[in-house]
Design goal:
Layout lengths: L7 H28 L10 H11 L6 E5 L6 E3 L4 E5 H4 L4 H19 L2 H33 L3 H15 L1 H26 L5 H43 L1
Length: 241
């Protein structure tokens, strides 16, 4: 997404972040495609693997359901449902089983009230509001201060907008330990309940590590966007003085 306050610094700061994001997405798809061709030694479909993991930790009440789309797998903590994409649900590939186990890891986090997951869930409404409305306030503040020269109103509005917009960065930071922990739980559970063999664990880890890169890239993009707008705000107030 290009900024309406575009200048060369936007490319300097945001460009590398988007390159990292594109590389991470490419890495995820490449790793997924590679291990989607490798059938797990148990031959167990991902949905069944998720069910076995959930039952092993007492989460019999968590349903495993199919969801449309590609790589749309997620755990829904509100409805206690683990949703697996069409390409994962029935697949017995190592990639599909690893993804299913990762989402089961989120269900375990929900069961144990993992602090970072609780914090992230609580931040969802604030982040949704802040990332959208904060951008509007930033735009309005820069217009008023930069073009209309009304600093007394424009600067405070832009500052409030930046604070709201920054919630997306905070959310992305909190997401990292949630995702890494879910993967760590998944790797232990997959082996302990014999969904994969010990040698396969290393390959499953490659799938999960590749997926984790997308969250690192998302955090980097959010950080650079906040930094860009903060620098624009500082330049604007500096120019006023």
């Amino acid at each position: 997404m290009l900024s309406p306050f575009f200048d060369i610094w936007y490319i300097v700061l945001i460009g590398p972040a988007f390159i990292l994001a594109m590389w991470a997405q490419s890495r995820v798809r490449g790793t997924y495609q590679k291990y989607s061709q490798v059938v797990s030694s148990t031959g167990m479909p991902a949905a069944m693997a998720a069910r076995r993991i959930l039952d092993a930790v007492g989460l019999h009440h968590v349903d495993v359901r199919r969801v449309p789309g590609e790589l749309t797998d997620h755990y829904d903590p509100r409805h206690k449902v683990l949703r697996l994409s069409e390409g994962v649900y029935d697949s017995n590939s190592l990639a599909a089983v690893a993804i299913a186990a990762h989402e089961a890891g989120h269900a375990v986090q929900d069961q144990t009230r993992y602090p970072w997951l609780v914090m992230r869930s609580a931040m969802v409404p604030m982040t949704t509001f802040g990332s959208k409305f904060g951008y509007v306030l930033l735009f309005l503040g820069f217009i008023m201060a930069g073009f209309l020269q009304n600093y007394e109103i424009g600067v405070p509005i832009a500052v409030i907008g930046l604070l709201l917009f920054s919630t997306a960065f905070v959310f992305s930071v909190i997401t990292l330990p949630v995702e890494f922990n879910a993967s760590a739980r998944a790797l232990k559970l997959m082996e302990s309940v014999r969904v994969v063999s010990s040698p396969e664990r290393m390959h499953a880890k490659k799938v999960l590590d590749a997926a984790a890169l997308t969250y690192v890239a998302a955090m980097f993009i959010a950080l650079m966007q906040v930094l860009y707008f903060a620098l624009r705000l500082l330049a604007m107030t500096g120019g006023r003085r």
